[in-house]
Amino acid sequence: MQTLSARVYARLPVWAQNAALSAWGWGYRRRRLGGSFTAELAAFREREGWTSEQMRDYLVERLRRTLLRAWEQTDYYREAWSGAGIQAADLARFEPEDLPRLPLLTRDVLRRESTRMLARDVRGQRLQRTSTSGSTGTPVSVYWTDADWRRTMAAKEARSLNWAGGTILGSRAMIGGRAIVPSDNPHPPYYRYNRAERQVYFTAFHIRPSTAADYVEGFRRYRPRLLTGYAHSYFFLARMMLDQGLQLGYFPEAIVLGSEPLSVEMKRTIEQAFGVRPFGEYGAVESCVLATECERGGLHLHPDVGFVEILDEESRPVQAGETGRIVCTSLGSEAQPLVRYAIGDLGGFAGTRCACGRDALPTLLPIEGRLEDVVYGPDGRQVVRLDWIYKDCEQILEAQIIQEQPDLFHVKAVTSGELTPELSRTLRERLRQRVGDVRVETERVEAIPRGARGKFRAVVSLLREEDKVLLRTMGRSATARAGI
What we know:
eight-stranded mixed β-sheet, 19 strands
């Protein structure tokens, strides 16, 4: 909610917060779903039925256009590629196999050079800016024009929501990370309603046994047809619904979930609680990669969103069936082209045809990204996706959250300069907003240790299994005492 002061919003009564969200939603919907959205949607649907040869021809044309635009319109790429001996004439003849001639773009470089990657011809436009730390805990800024945004939304509508039987054009629910419920508000409801988009938005950070009934009441009240949001949040809520005998009272049309991979157990539990099979989606705020699950269970990459390479530790392509680093080149971003961007996740091409017959959209192995543990609050809440606490903290280069005890967290941060008392206070306050009344220690470190295969863990839980069981039991006991 960039157009509203968070402090003013937090003091509003619930009905006024709903009104504020609805007013904001009118402009938000127009920017994402107006203008070129319908034409882009039709184009994505058409390309879905193409042959592999047709898709390759399209990708070559889009790739060359993207590379030439990056060369002509940005300061960063012209300098970086000239240093590698590349000229515009080379880019005009590029094939996908030529991409290794260009240097990789790391997350650290994107963080430092984000504004120099902005195309000069969009700098006077109103741009959408988002800060994200993704799976690495390293904050970066990403920019889109309205046209970029509409193209991304059209891809999701055609290939993700429609495949699952849903649409963004109807009523929907979202469990996500926006602070739509003030963190210091212990009272329900834990959702707000955006009338402009017919969207009921649930906070992901208040889900615990004692609040599960209020979440279910929100679904019953608005009966959204499409359910989206954090996979683990729906899984947590589903387990509580089954444990407490809470029923939705209607059947949604579709559930499409992201932010974390959907395991077999998660799918089974969510379907049992909500009555609909959940579909998985893999994407990124950077809008350079999208993969979605089809009706036959295949995870399909959409190369017309972003061209993807899978590389080993020496930056060499791996064989189908093998796992490596995901490196993507955006094919739809006019504002900030990302070329050979190492997104920080691991994956691989399956190398097999899916029974659905969409041969132009290759299938992937399960994504090994977003490597985070679940943390527990003292009241039994279970929380994932804590990268919000670093939002707009540009001095943080990399960070890791460790839950050492039920009421003790440790934040390790790699910073440019000192870890100031003000920044430490911000991190402590934001983490407490998400997990409850806990102690938070902050520490500046030179580097964050990597785990197996060099993978970064943004959130680590050191709790013993008996501690987790106790916390879950405490949550259930609070629910029983409340008579829920």
